[in-house]
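Morning!

As promised:
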Amino acid sequence: MNENIIEFRNVSIDYPLRKYTIRAVTDVTLGIKRGKITALVGESGSGKTTLSSSIIQCISEPGKIASGDIVFFDNVDGEDKKIVVSKFKEKEMKPFRWKRVSMVFQAAQSALNPVMTVEQQFVETLLAHGEDKDKQKQRARCKELLEYVKLDAERVLSSYPHELSGGMKQRVMIAFSLLLNPDLIILDEPTTALDVITQSYIFNLLKQINREKNISMILMTHDISVVAKFADYVGVMYGGRLVEYGKVNDIFRKRRHPYTEGLINATPSIIGDIDKLKPIEGSPPDLMNLPKGCIFSPRCPYAQEVCVGEEPSEICLEDGSKGRCYFFKERDNGRK
Ligand SMILES: Nc1ncnc2c1ncn2[C@@H]1O[C@H](COP(=O)(O)OP(=O)(O)O)[C@@H](O)[C@H]1O
Ligand SMILES: [Mg+2]
């Protein structure tokens, strides 16, 4: 069985605007491991949402995949079936979206329809996907899921969104994403706007869902301390590039890419000592006016002459890690 459920193969994604085109994702090759949690981190604007939403063709207008393929590996009776989902027409994508891959969008809390009860919204989705029309069965399914995310199902089913707290709405959205039993759930910053205790509660719940139901997850966040605790693999994005990818322990211990090191050094709960905190100098790259060479070089404390020449291509290591830095391999020295 292929260990990946999704593979991005040299994917670039553009937003063609009236006067110019923004390339939000550049040449990303990334495998999402089956049954695992892969975190995507990086500053706001680094391309996380654009990349992930492309799997189910939900890139916001006018975004388009400019090149590359997205492959889904379906496992039927132990045999892998390779499906190029990026070539899907809307007709083919419709049964795939939500049933095979669901997404909890950023600001999901406002995605609930304010004039419908939770039960009405769940049932509408079940019907739209041709699921069982038996009212009792539908209700039982909704109840089961709401109880699974530890909500008082009876009360929540008959509630309107405004009657629920932020944390409750977020759990409703997670239950919603489970409704059609998907293989993969994409979670876009699922806990922004929630307090720290609710955040940690929701991440624990997600990890439990991942382990018990064996659902693969892509978790986008700009909070790298969450990643250390909940993810199995990490992709670090910068200016639309995947600048580093590896197992969570390797990412945190080895800090091979200087940008990853910068992100970690700027995170209080990881560094512990507030006096040692170091924000990354400078600002994220302007996609319309990228620096020459490595696009992180203007902010990189280790930049050398070679870094401002050509943009580095990916360096792949034997342990499955990879990164876009000329010194990716050497920087591993001394950190185990
Ligand atoms: N609908 C859109 N139209 C034009 N540009 C967009 C649109 N959505 C995103 N972008 C641009 O694409 C880049 C990546 O955005 P996004 O994928 O949302 O990043 P992230 O999720 O990491 O914050 C940003 O520079 C953003 O300005
Ligand atoms: Mg985003």
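Residues 15, 22, 24, 42, 44-50, 60-61, 63, 287 surround adenosine-5'-diphosphate (ligand 1) (CB under 6 Å).

Hope this helps with the figure draft.
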